[in-house]
Amino acid sequence: MSNDRYGNDLSTTSATARDAYVEGCDLVLSQWDGGVAAFDRALVVDPDFPLAHAGRARALQLASDVAGARAAIAAAKTYDMPEREASHVEVFDLMMSSPTDALAHVRQHVSRWPTDALVAATGTNIAGLIGISGRADRERVQLDFLADLAPHYGDDWWFNGHYGMALSELGFRDQARALIERSLLDRPGNAGGAHA
After folding, report:
1. pLDDT at residue 100 in the model
2. Residue 183, CA distances (Å) to 78, 80, 81, 91 in order
């Protein structure tokens, strides 16, 4: 058993697969190219690593390869896995069939595993599950979602960029600026931070 960058347990025992998975997650979180290739490297080493299949599904979905994403999440679902990983996989499965159910599951998931950043990220930004919800108060809902997670992320570059953007959208510019600047300082190749 190993851990991701946030300390969550991973079912792979391969350090190489773990490192490639973490790289893939960071590329997806930074909205940067290369996530699919990183998850593919993890799967070459450990083809039975369900979260690498799920991460690959998310990277393919973001690249508009819906068929590829569906195939990757179907592969992830074939494994017997620990509870957090099964819930993580379920989020990405639901995203392709029922965004409303996916958001409810994301909320449930992060209430138990708040530092599962790849899952938490699905609720952030204008194209996230909250952003596309159609709610008139989506900016406030997104800020509240991120504020609940803030105690768990410390000075994390991904979280700071999105939390800063959410604060900025509601007029909290001074607080937002400090977070956004830290996000870009910690990871300059970070499209979420740059957009914020």
Report:
1. 84
2. 36, 36, 33, 26
CA 96 – CA 140 distance, rounded (Å): 25
With b meaning 16 or more CB within 10 Å and e meaning fewer, what string describes 97-108? eeeeebbebbee
Cα(116)–Cα(7) distance, integer angstroms: 9
pLDDT digit string, tens, across residues 100-139: 899 999 999 999 999 999 999 999 987 889 988 888 999 9
Distance in angstroms (rounded) separating the CA atoms of residues 32 and 9? 24
HEC letters along the chain: CEECCCCCEECCCCHHHHHHHHHHHHHHHCCCCCHHHHHHHHHHHCCCCHHHHHHHHHHHHHCCCHHHHHHHHHHHCCCCCCHHHHHHHHHHHHHCCCHHHHHHHHHHHHHHCCCCHHHHHHHCCCCCCCCCCCCCCHHHHHHHHHHHHHHHCCCCHHHHHHHHHHHHHCCCHHHHHHHHHHHHHHCCCCHHHHHC
Q: Does 1-98 carry CATH code 1.10.287.3510?
A: no
Is 1's pLDDT higher than 80? no
